[in-house]
Amino acid sequence: MYLMFVIYLTGFMVYGQADKPSAAKTNIPTQVRWLLKELDADQRVRRQKAERELLDLGQAILPELPPPELLPNQAVRATVARVRVILERRQAQESVQPTRITSVKGLKLRDWLHELEQQTANPIDASAVPPAAANATINQSFQQTPFWQALDAVLLPQQLRIQFAPDSSALKLVPATTPSADAAWKVAIDGPFRVAVESVKTRKVSGNEQQQRLRTELSVAPEPRLRALFLKLAAKDFQATGPTGRIFAPADPPAQFDLPLGEGGRFVRWNLDFAANSNVPAAEIFPLKIQGQAMMQIDAASEHIRFTDLVDGAGTARRRGGVTVAVQKIQAKVQPDTTQTVSIKVLVAYDTGGPAFESHRTWIFHNEVYLDRKEGNSLPPNGGFETDLQANGSVGVTYHFQGLKGPLADYEFIYVAPTLIVDVPVKIQLEGIRQPVKN
C-alpha cells in the first residue's frame, strides 16, 4: 500500500513549498497533485492552506482526487475525504437546479432539439418525430427558459407529446396520437421536476351514499439528466380546493407513499383520493386546485469503481464515499466457440441501512455495471443477474457476462455506484383542473 502511494506521488514530489505551480501557467491536475503533497506538510498552516485551496478550485477537481486506498496517511485520507464531501454536496446542489435554454426563433424543430440537448445535457430521442414536424419552424425565442417549460411550449403546437419510457435514459418524443403518449390534464413546473395531473375521477363510496371520492392520478418526472431513485410523500401533506374555497382533505390521511422510479428514474405515478360529500355540486369542486409537497431522492454523485484484476481479483474491495463494493467471486468458463462466459459476484454495502434502505434498495439493481476491454469495447451483463444476499444496508448480486473474446486479463470490471444521495423537495401546485367526464 505504501508503495502504491509513493508511485502515485511520483509526479509531484519534485515540488517544494517555493515551487508551487502558478494557477495561470498550469492545469488543474498539476495543482491538485501539488496540494495533495502539501496536505502532508510538516507545518499545520501549510496543510490548512492546501485544504482551502483545494476547496477553492471547486468541483472540477473531483475526478483528480485519488482513491482512498492510495492514501496510507490517515490525516491526508481524512482531509481528502472531507474535501470530497464538501465539493460533492456543492455539486449536488447545482445538479438539482433546473437547466435552461436560450435560443432564437426561426430554428427548425430538429435543430432546436439539438440546442436543447447541448445546453441542458438532457438526452432527447426524436426518432419517432414525423419528418414534417422535425422540419417545422419554431416561431418562439427563449431566454434562460427552464427545460420543461420550453419543451412543453414547443411540443404542443407541433402536436407532439412526451413518452415516458422507464427503460430508456432519453426522453422520447412521439405524435400526440400515440396511445402511450403523455396526455396530462394540467402541468406545473417546480425546479427540475414536471408535475402533472394525469386524470381525475369522481367515485362513489361503497356502503356510504353520503360520501364520494375525487381520485386524482398524479405524476412527477425529473429532468432526464437526473437519476431519481424514489419519491416519498404523505397524504396528510396534500389538500384539494374548489373554486369557492371549499377544502377537500385526503380520504386516507395516514397513508404514506414510497414510490421507486425503477430503471432510468424517468417518472413516477400514483393515485391520491380526496373526500367529498355526495351533495357537493360539481360547480363547487371544479376547477380544482391541488397543493402539497413530496420529497424526491436523487443520485447526485456517482463513482466509476474499477476492478482491474479479474484473474486474481476475488476478495478485492473498493470504498467510495459511503459505499463499499467488494468482488467476492469470479468464475470464467470457455465455450465451444472459444468465447468465455464470466460470472462476477459483488457485495454492495452502504453506510446507511435500516428500514428506508430495505424498502428502496431495488434501485441498486439498476446501477450501471459493465466489463471494459482495454481496447475500449465495453460489455454489459448480457447474461442477466441474480440476487445472492440482501442484508441491512447491503446487497449481493452476481452478474453474468457472455461472449467475451480474448483472455480475461484483457478486461476490467466497472461498477457505477451512487456515492451521494440527496433529498430534494418537490412542490406540487396544480390549478385549473377541469371536471371529468361522468362515468
**Major pleated sheet:** 8 strands, antiparallel
What is the beta-strand fraction?
A: 35-45%
Structural class: alpha+beta
Please report the total strand number as a whole number.
24
Multimerization state: single chain
Counting structural domains, the number is: 4
* Shape designation: globular
pLDDT < 50 stretches: 1-18
Range of helix content: 10-25%
Looking at CATH, which topology of the largest domain would you report? Immunoglobulin-like
Task: Give the distance, in angstroms, between the N- and C-terminal Cα atoms.
Answer: 71 Å
Number of alpha- plus pi-helical segments: 8
- CATH architecture level-2 label of the largest domain: Sandwich
CATH class of the largest domain: Mainly Beta
What is the average per-residue confidence, as pLDDT, rounded to a whole number?
86
Radius of gyration: 26 Å
Describe this structure as you would to a colleague.
This protein is an alpha+beta fold and 439 residues long. It has four domains: 2-95, no CATH class; 100-175, Phage tail protein beta-alpha-beta fold (3-Layer(bab) Sandwich), CATH 3.55.50.30; 186-296 and 424-433, Sandwich (Immunoglobulin-like), CATH 2.60.40; 301-420, Immunoglobulin-like (Sandwich). The protein has helices at residues 2-9, 28-38, 44-57, 74-95, 109-120, 131-134, 147-155, 354-360, and strands at 100-103, 107-108, 124-125, 137-138, 142-146, 160-163, 171-175, 186-190, 193-205, 208-222, 227-234, 239-241, 247-248, 256-260, 268-277, 288-307, 317-320, 323-334, 340-350, 369-373, 378-379, 385-391, 394-404, 411-433. The strands form six sheets. Strands 11, 12, 13, 14, 16, 20, 21 and 24 form an eight-stranded antiparallel sheet that branches. The chain has a five-stranded antiparallel sheet with strand order 17-18-19-23-22, with no helix packed on it.
